[in-house]
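Entry 12.
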Amino acid sequence: MQGKSTGKQIVIVGLGNPGRAYSLHRHNMGFHVVDELARQESGSWSPNREKTHICVVEIENQRVILAKPQTYMNLSGKAVAPLMQRENADPARLIVIHDDLDIVVGKVRIKVGGGDGGHRGIRSIADSLRFRDFVRVRLGIGRPPEGVPAEEFVLTSFGPEEQSTATALALAGAEVVRLLVASGVDEARNMIHSGRLMPDPARQEHRAGSR
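Predicted 3D structure (tokens):
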């Protein structure tokens, strides 16, 4: 797949590792965001033959496919590439949501293309698609404490004192995805960088409380 325009279908991939043992890890923030989007739209997940759990919902009046690769993080592309091919989807309309060590915890940033920053899930998708210019929604989990290797830190859970931050991060990530679908990358970036992307606290509380 060379990344040329093939279709208008939007695919939104949250990255993480499958299984209960990994579910609360920082590395699974991408899963948490697509789970939140599915919950908000009363969507249900189902497995497919490409080792992916998918959920088809409507966001901002557009049909989108939410996806959670079940191949483990390092092989995410082995699930994403066949899904994109089966849906005849344009990789330029692919949105991938993932944790990021280089962003302050709780912050969300958008990136299009470029390097993978050492994130093996992003690397696997770029290599499998042979295309790097997909949209990334980067969820800040902060740097590990001194003496803790990054690969160990991402496989730790948020502590009790961090749970509210993790919940707010998942909600903010979902809001960013909605803005991307509705208005595109430039408008979403402008909203984030100007500080105007401030999800309504009452709506956040309602969404968090109904989990």
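Annotation: Residues 163-183 form the longest helix (21 residues). Residues 38 and 59 are 10 Å apart (CA to CA).
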